[in-house]
Each structure stands twice: as C-alpha cells, then as structure tokens.
Amino acid sequence: MISSVKPVRWVVSYACSLAAVLCGSSLSVATAKAAVVTLDCVSDNWISSCSSGCTANNGHMAELRVRTSWWGTSGSEEPKNFRSLLSFDLSSLPQDANLITSATLGLYYFATAHGDPAGRTYDVHGVSGSWTEMGSTWQARDDFDQPSPVYWDSHLAGAPAYQPGGGDFDQAAKASVVVPAEFGWMTWDVTDLLAERVGGLESFGLILEDSDEIESNPGGKVSYMAFFHSAEFAEDPGLRPYLEVTYVPEPGTLALAGMGLLALGGLRSKPRS
Q: What is the C-alpha separation between 20 and 28, in angstroms, rounded?
C-alpha cells in the first residue's frame, strides 16, 4: 500500500471512552475503545549477497535498500541481492496476542537505482533469533568485534562461501506489497506475524526482500533497487520506519486509567477553603 501523505502518528496514544460513575470508591468502565501505539525502529541494516559485500555492515547508513540483480564487470557477473533488516521493541505492548487487532509496518520509499522496481513485489518475513545492527551482514548475525562471526543458520560453507546466508526466516512471506510507480509511504499488514511473536519475544525482527530474487544469469545484466529512509535518517524523523499497532487495553490498564481520572475528578471537586 502506498501513500504520499504522512500518516498520523503517536508515540503512545489511547483512544478510550470511559463512563465513570462516582459511588463511594467504585469506578464503572462502560466502554473501552482500541489503543494505538506507534513504535519507532530501534535497529536496522541492509545486507548484500555479492562476493565483495557479504561481510559488509551498513547499519550506520541513513537508508535501507532492497535489490535484486545480475550485475558486475563483464565476465564476473553474479547475483547481487540486497535485503533490509528491521527490529522493534515490543515491551510496551500487551503480552496477550488476542488483544492485538492490527499492526502496520511503514517505510518511506524515496529513490531507485539502475532499474525501476515498480511492479515488483516486496515481501516481509519474520526473522528467527537475534542479530545486531552494527554487526549483521549477509553471512552473519554478528560479525563485529567477535573472535569469529556468529553466522546465520542459513549460512553454509562451500563455493561460494557466502551463499546462501541472508538471514534466518520462514520462506513463506507474511506480508507482500507491490512497489508503486510513485515515491511515498509503503505499508505492510503484519498483524498475523506480530500476533505470532508478541508475548514470546522482547523484540520484533523483520526482513524485507524482493519476492523473486535473481539467482542465475537471466541473459544479461539487470537490476532493480529501491531505497527507503532508515532509523538513522536525520533530516526528517517523521520519515523513519515505524510499526503502528492497535490493541485492546488489558483490564488492569483501564482500571488504573479510570482510578487516575477518578482521583483527578476528586481533586477538582474539592471545595475551596
């Protein structure tokens, strides 16, 4: 889904309708609407499958990249596929997956290179296990300041040594979006994927890839690449990646909120001396 209009975002906002009835110390909550929280990306990186880039980390960059290509100097062409990793902190969300009603991943698409990826499909998968922003590469979860790389499970030694790598994730995509012709927000519905993860993990790791990556010579050089702003994009923080989650507040949360309103009402109604 694409939009050129910046979505309304809140760091944390509750849309609650409380009907409080003062009766001694009791509080009656008549209705409770959904709560909406927008999580900022806490770490991200893009990784490259090419032989010269499989050990490179790009976590410091202000952009994320998704690419599929057959590229290189004449006679040494190879697949050059880029994938983007993102992670979100789930600690502010309820631990009951049944309370999650929707989850949307948003990335701001702002540029292309080589060939236009419009019409191609970009898939989101859930990443298995941990990885580090400044240490992850195509071949490793963490290849920074380590005695030896902490490889992805998918990494296999052999020829070439860097294949397959590229992260550990289920092959079935959890969300897919067709790249549009215009730049702007692209959003993925990751509700089902979040419901699988919430309650079991503190962080929510995702990987974004072209759904039909080039793995062999298609008959000549070809490349399709999209650029997205990353969490390091400083010019406009409002264009950084986000995860917007809608959920039903847990009963305990509503009770505390109601007690706060009751206390505030009591203070306001105290007669002046």
A: 5
Q: Measure the CA–CA gap between 170 and 219, rounded to whole angstroms.
A: 30
The contacts of residue 108 (CB under 8 Å, 6+ apart) are 184, 185, 186, 228, 229, 239, 240, 241
pTM: 0.81
- Let me know if 134 is exposed, middle or buried by CB neighbors in 10 A (0-12, 13-18, 19+): middle
CA-CA distance, 189 to 211, in Å (whole number)? Answer: 16
Distances (CA, A) of 249 to 19, 125, 224: 16, 27, 42
Strand partners, 47: 83
User: Rounded CA gap, 93 and 246, in Å?
Assistant: 10
Q: Can you give the pLDDT of all 273 residues of the chain as single tens digits?
A: 555 445 544 444 444 443 333 333 333 333 457 899 999 999 999 999 988 888 999 999 999 999 999 988 888 889 999 999 999 999 999 989 999 999 999 999 999 998 999 999 999 999 988 999 999 999 999 988 778 889 998 886 555 555 678 999 988 999 999 999 999 999 999 999 999 888 767 789 999 999 999 988 998 899 999 999 999 999 999 999 999 999 998 765 544 444 444 444 443 444 444
